[in-house]
């Protein structure tokens, strides 16, 4: 194959056009990768997506510590997460929506108390990270003891009543058979007399 100007490779299947590799900040592969055949190859494996903008593991842990003051790295948080611009929101519904900006990522993580916290992060044009965190956590509520105890007691009572009814029914059937047998023997005794 003799390739046209914008193509290369043994079968001219590799595009030299880098417009498909441009990230939202107008950098090729967000400055974190190389554009090969019109697709980004990210230099760091923690960055993903078509333009190396998505980093699911980047701010999660640090955001947790910085926003709530808990976790393993709460003492070293300022050094590790100083580059994040942190914006607190009351509820998760107030967080920026994915269609607000093309590079916003919605995340949720579980903290040490088994509660879910919600946050978004966005890589801005100057490569700084803007993080919005919802203050309201979603914690699993413990089991409600009263309905469980009431259900167990009601179940035991119902089983007991059912057994009593079955026993009563069997006794009625047995008594009727005995009475019929007695009546028959009574008739035989009259005949004998």
Automatic annotation (TrEMBL):
Gene Ontology cellular-component annotations: plasma membrane
Sequence ranges assigned to domain EGF-like in this UniProt record: 1-12
Pfam assignment, any one: Integrin_b_cyt
Alphabetic keyword roster: Disulfide bond, EGF-like domain, Glycoprotein, Membrane, Repeat, Signal, Transmembrane, Transmembrane helix
Residue stretches spanning the membrane: 145-167
SMART domains associated with the record: Integrin_b_cyt, Integrin_B_tail
Domain of life according to the entry: Eukaryota
UniProt protein name: EGF-like domain-containing protein
């Amino acid at each position: 194959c003799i390739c046209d100007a914008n193509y290369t490779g043994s079968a001219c299947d590799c595009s030299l056009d880098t417009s498909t590799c441009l990230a939202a900040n107008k950098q090729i592969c967000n400055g974190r990768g190389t554009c090969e055949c019109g697709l980004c190859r990210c230099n760091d494996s923690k960055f993903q997506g078509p333009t190396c903008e998505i980093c699911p593991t980047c701010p999660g842990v640090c955001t947790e510590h910085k926003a709530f003051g808990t976790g393993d790295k709460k003492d070293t948080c300022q050094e590790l997460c100083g580059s994040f611009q942190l914006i607190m929101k009351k509820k998760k519904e107030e967080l920026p929506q994915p269609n607000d900006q093309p590079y916003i990522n919605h995340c949720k993580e579980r903290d040490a108390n088994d509660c879910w916290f919600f946050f978004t992060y966005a890589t801005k044009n100057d490569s700084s990270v803007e993080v919005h965190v919802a203050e309201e956590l979603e914690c699993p509520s413990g089991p409600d003891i009263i309905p469980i105890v009431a259900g167990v007691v009601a179940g035991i009572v119902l089983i007991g009543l059912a057994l009593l009814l079955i026993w009563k029914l069997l006794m009625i059937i047995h008594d009727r058979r005995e009475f019929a047998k007695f009546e028959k023997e009574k008739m035989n005794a009259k005949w004998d007399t």
